[in-house]
Design a protein that fits this description.
Blueprint: E1 4-15, E2 18-30, E3 35-40, H1 46-53, E4 61-66, E5 69-70, H2 76-86, E6 87-91, H3 102-110, H4 117-130, H5 146-159, E7 164-168, H6 176-191, E8 195-200, H7 203-206, E9 211-216, E10 219-225, H8 246-259, H9 261-299, E11 304-309, H10 318-331, H11 340-348, E12 352-358, E13 360-361, E14 364-368, E15 371-375, E16 378-380, E17 390-393, E18 400-404, H12 405-412, E19 424-432, E20 438-451, E21 458-460, H13 462-471, E22 480-485, H14 491-500, E23 510-514, H15 515-558, H16 560-568, H17 573-614, H18 623-650, H19 653-657
Parallel strand pairs: 3-8, 3-9, 6-7, 7-8, 16-21, 18-20
Antiparallel strand pairs: 1-2, 1-4, 4-5, 9-10, 11-22, 11-23, 12-22, 13-16, 14-15, 14-19, 17-20, 18-21, 19-20
Helix pairs in contact: 3-4, 3-5, 4-5, 5-6, 8-17, 9-15, 9-17, 9-18, 15-18, 17-18
The structure holds adenosine-5'-triphosphate.
Residues 13, 22, 40, 42-48 line the site of adenosine-5'-triphosphate.
Family: Belongs to the ABC transporter superfamily. Macrolide exporter (TC 3.A.1.122) family.
Keywords: Amino-acid transport, ATP-binding, Cell inner membrane, Cell membrane, Membrane, Nucleotide-binding, Transmembrane, Transmembrane helix, Transport
Transmembrane segments: 261-284, 532-553, 584-606, 618-643
């Protein structure tokens, strides 16, 4: 039984539905140990026949039998396995992969065998030594002569120990000396018991083989045996094939990335800028949010709830409470008075650490020497105010007041405003007595400190305020309360309870103001700003994605021939797809690392530059942000590569090999 049989092989190419028959019924039988030369005029169909024998062409009629088994050319997977296990190719134009070294070019065929890493390397080096290239193994193909390139191709074709070697014009591009050497190598391969089929135009080359088959007009018109086939060795070495492992694709993708290092660096830089924008804006979002919280918390104790009388009886929003308070405080101060009953009810609420009484006045005047200043709101010092809101001096003790920096500047001038601390100022305001008649209040207080910042306020010692009011026979009953919760987590629910306290007429009696609800409003704006920033970052990320897509498409068209070579070696569509997706994932991953580096430097600079101004690190990246950026980078680079990789995998191996 012949090792390889061709039965009635027919093939036509179609141009606008018109058939151009190239092979018109080929019947041939080949045995191992033969060195067969296929001769014929140009365009006679020799390469077409080789593609069919080599399992690259699936579109033909007739049967190919290997070892008595029909090769089902309808099944692509079976042909992949056949090429991987059985066929080694040698081409006229060598078809080496330019970005791999000589050694790696041979190793790619060995990646699809069950040999261990060391065995693969040892075999590749041995084969390169046999073809006389042991000194050149670390060179890239473009540093070799034509003869040397063809010898690398022979070593690669032999690497996985295939039984059939197909050589399409193997000496076509070589001088006579190299031609002789290559022919001797091919003869040696046949001597090892392999089937060598070489296509040639040259009678001289054909005469070196054991048999010449002549092809003319799509048919065999001569089959001449020059000498007997070589005997087959008793126990041939068998190297078992296996499918390409994923790690081999990753390795190759990485090597390609490194080979085009500078070009890829630019692409990675471009992608990194997109990821950097995402990271920076997330970090800024965190920082601004944290800064605002910090500012508010430093001015106001977050566990405190300011409680006011609700003169409307209805539910009020925080804004309504503020404006109702202002109106009532001016028009009818007594409507805002909190009764002992109110305080008792507050004291009974769960989770209360303390309930404090406070007085708040609407309009007042301050006099220092000849200068006067009027203010709109002053409260007694209470637990909702934190000591850190006082930037100079200290909290108001007995007979003391804390002014805002602005007030101090108006009273003492921008240069010497701080010297106001410790000085006496005259405080005057209008209030009412218990009967509701107006009373003018006047007293002298010492400036204890100055508050500064967005929510800086004027505060006076509670006992001092009480004394001032009583001295003038004014109504000294408290008009606000400060409830401090034990836990931050219950502040909002307690505030709700306070808002829901009702009198006998089922009217709401109190309104609660918490810093949490102020924070909520602020956070809404911060979130809005963050969303806008995220959208900008998203756009730059989209540009990055498009860049990767374009790069990958360019890469596929540049590497079309390589795709053909890999398919001829037995790689599956899946392997080709993975080659490109993994390269893209590497780009994404390295871009993310680069972006992290850039954002680390930029945030360091920004934080350093702004710290002096705001005493806060304005860019704050969390581990979550970093993980998110890396994951997003990997996912988008994978998605970006899907279409180009699919396109690469779908290429017809014969067309890919024919690419320039
Ligand atoms: N993909 C294709 N589409 C259409 N026609 C094709 C295609 N490939 C080959 N042909 C035609 O089929 C014929 C046989 O081509 P083939 O390459 O097999 O010839 P060949 O004997 O190897 O020629 P050469 O010795 O010049 O390489 C030629 O006329 C060629 O133009």
């Amino acid at each position: 039984m012949a090792f390889l049989e061709l039965h009635d092989i027919r093939k036509a190419y179609y141009l606008d539905k018109e058939a151009f028959p190239v092979l018109k019924g080929i019947d041939l039988q080949f045995s191992r140990g033969e060195f067969v030369s296929i001769l014929g005029e140009s365009g006679g169909g020799k390469s077409t026949l080789m593609n069919i024998i080599g399992g690259l062409d699936r579109d033909f009629e007739g049967q190919v039998l290997v070892n008595g088994q029909v090769l089902d050319h309808a099944k692509e997977k079976q042909l992949d396995d056949y090429r991987r296990a059985m066929v080694g190719y040698i081409y006229q134009s060598y078809n080496l992969i330019s970005h791999l070294t000589v050694l790696d070019n041979v190793l790619i065929a060995l990646d699809m065998t069950t040999l261990s890493r060391e065995e693969r390397r040892a075999r590749a080096l041995k084969l390169l030594d046999q073809v006389g290239l042991s000194e050149q193994v670390h060179k890239h193909p473009n540093h070799l002569s034509g003869g040397q390139k063809q010898r690398v191709a022979i070593a690669r074709a032999l690497a996985s120990d295939p039984q059939i070697i197909i050589a399409d014009e193997p000496t076509g591009a070589l001088d006579s000396e190299n031609t002789q050497e290559v022919l001797a190598l091919l003869d040696n391969i046949a001597k090892d018991g392999k089937l060598v089929i070489a296509v040639t135009h040259s009678q001289e080359v054909a005469d070196h083989g054991t048999r010449i088959v002549h092809l003319a007009d799509g048919k065999i018109d001569g089959d001449q045996r020059l000498r007997p086939a070589y005997p087959i060795p008793a126990a041939p070495t068998v190297i078992k094939p296996k499918q390409l492992p994923a790690t081999a694709s990753y390795r190759m993708a990485f090597k390609h990335l490194m080979y085009n290092f500078w070009r890829n660096s630019l692409i990675m830089l471009g992608t990194a800028i997109g990821i950097f924008a995402v990271l920076l804006f997330s970090g800024l979002g965190n920082g601004i949010n944290g800064y605002i919280q910090d500012q508010i918390n430093s001015l106001t104790n977050p566990r405190s709830i300011t409680v006011l009388k609700n003169p409307t009886g209805k539910r009020l929003t925080q804004d309504q409470v503020q404006s109702a308070l202002m109106q009532n405080m001016a028009a009818d101060p007594q409507s805002m008075v909190l009764s002992n009953g109110d305080f008792n009810r507050l004291a009974k609420l769960a989770d209360g650490a303390s309930v404090e009484k406070g007085n708040m006045i609407g309009g007042y005047r301050l006099n220092y020497g000849k200068l006067q200043q009027s203010g709109t709101n002053m409260t007694t010092w209470n637990k909702s105010v934190t000591a850190s809101s006082i930037k100079h001096g200290h909290r108001p003790g007995n007979n003391e007041i804390v002014l805002t920096k602005q007030q101090a500047i108006q009273l003492a001038g921008p240069r010497s405003y701080r010297q106001l601390i410790g000085k006496q100022v005259k405080l005057s305001f209008n209030w009412v007595n218990k009967q509701g008649a107006p009373v003018a209040i006047e007293g002298t207080v010492r400036v204890a400190g100055l508050s500064e910042g967005a929510s800086a306020g004027t505060t006076i010692n509670y006992a001092t305020m009480q004394r001032l009011l009583r001295q003038h026979d004014a109504d000294a009953r408290p008009n606000f309360a400060v409830f401090v919760a034990k836990k931050l987590s219950t502040v909002e629910s307690t505030a709700n309870q306070i808002n829901n306290l009702r009198n006998g007429q089922n009217e709401r009696i109190l309104s609660a103001i918490t810093v949490g609800s102020v924070l909520k409003t602020v956070n809404t704006y911060v979130r809005l700003a963050s969303t806008i920033l995220a959208a900008i970052a998203g756009i730059s990320l989209l540009v990055s994605v498009l860049m990767i897509i374009v790069t990958m498409y360019m890469s596929v068209s540049e590497r079309t021939k390589e795709i053909g070579i890999l398919r001829a070696l037995g790689e599956r569509k899946k392997d080709i797809r993975r080659l490109f997706t993994s390269e893209s994932i590497f780009i994404g991953l390295f871009s993310a690392i680069l972006a992290l580096g850039i954002v680390a430097v930029v945030s360091l600079i920004l934080n350093h530059a702004l710290y002096g101004l705001i005493k806060y690190n304005i860019v704050q990246l969390t581990v979550g942000n970093v993980i998110f950026a890396v994951v997003v980078a990997v996912i988008i680079s994978f998605i970006a590569a899907l279409l180009p990789a699919r396109h690469a995998a779908k290429l017809n191996p014969i067309d890919a090999l024919a690419a320039d």
